[in-house]
Amino acid sequence: MSTKKKSKNPAKTAVKEEKKIAAKLIPIYIMGKRYEVPEGLTIMKAMEYAGYILIRGCGCRGGTCGACGTVYRKPGDYKLQVALACQKTVEPDMYIAQIPFFPANRALYDFAGLTAAPEEVFKLYPELFRCVACNSCTKACPQGIEVMDAISALKQGNIAGAAQLSFDCIQCGLCTSRCFGELAQYHMFQLARRIYGARIVPRAEHLVEMVKAVNEGRYDRFLDELKQVKEDELKKLYQEREVEPMVAGEDWKPEDTTYL
Ligand code: SF4
Ligand code: SF4
Ligand code: FES
């Protein structure tokens, strides 16, 4: 009988190794309770793995809705960290608590009556001037927004600046949770962007022309024709329609310009 050991199949070993890595569990603490969860999961998936059913604090799962603001602390680190639960992956011994909603002051206003005067913002959010320029908000923002600069712009009456700086805000409220001045930055930014969009940005002329054309009935005949088409034919028309390419010049037009 041969004593020679069987040589290992490297492919099989790699698969086994991969499974071992995929199954590696790490300890984390959710609301103070210890759980073992697979390494590599996001905080959100780890919470679900641990048995949490997320009804609040979970929305897009893609880092855009702002529903999953989370705070955590790592062992040996004095600093409280912030993250989006759907984006941040778990690390061993993290202490995690979710902040799905942060109770922040949101002013009530009738937007139709608002102008672009900075005083409108000052009146609705007088706490704007409680900002002590500590920059904690900027450090807390998972979107990398210069939150303090946007607040400074608002204080200076620069609504357009505040709107542009805060364009990527997802309303997660993490800045507000860290604010020394008790400001609800994200609600202020939303107001700034609304005023900017409705009162400051010049109207797009081509859009004005198009709305006029629609109101004058330029498309009524085409819509009436489409309404007469049977469902299957309508689907076919839709599937075969000419679609604007992903990369197209400003002057791109469909070959059939009947509907322009
Ligand atoms: S500005 Fe505030 S609310 Fe907006 S994304 Fe940043 S931390 Fe979240
Ligand atoms: S955290 Fe609050 S007080 Fe500090 S800079 Fe930001 S808005 Fe101002
Ligand atoms: S679930 Fe929407 S940002 Fe995390």
Helices and strands in order:
Layout: H1 10-22, E1 25-30, E2 33-38, H2 43-49, E3 69-73, E4 81-84, E5 95-98, H3 118-124, H4 136-140, H5 147-155, H6 159-165, H7 174-177, H8 185-200, H9 205-215, H10 220-228, H11 231-240
Parallel strand pairs: 1-5
Antiparallel strand pairs: 1-2, 3-4, 3-5
Helix pairs in contact: 5-6, 5-8, 6-8
This protein binds iron/sulfur cluster (2 copies) and FE2/S2 (inorganic) cluster.
Give the averaged pLDDT, no decimals: 91
Distance between the termini: 85 Å
Rounded to the nearest angstrom, the radius of gyration is 27 Å
Q: Strand content of the residues, in percent?
A: 5-15%
Assembly state (oligomeric): single chain
Number of strands: 5
| Estimated helix fraction | 25-40%
Q: How do the helices and strands follow one another from N- to C-terminus? A: HEEHEEEHHHHHHHHH
- Catalogue the unreliable spans: 1-7
Number of H/I helices: 11
**Class by alpha and beta content:** alpha+beta
Broad shape: flat
Main beta-sheet annotation: 5 strands, mixed
Ligand list: iron/sulfur cluster, FE2/S2 (inorganic) cluster
Lateral strand order in the biggest sheet: 2-1-5-3-4
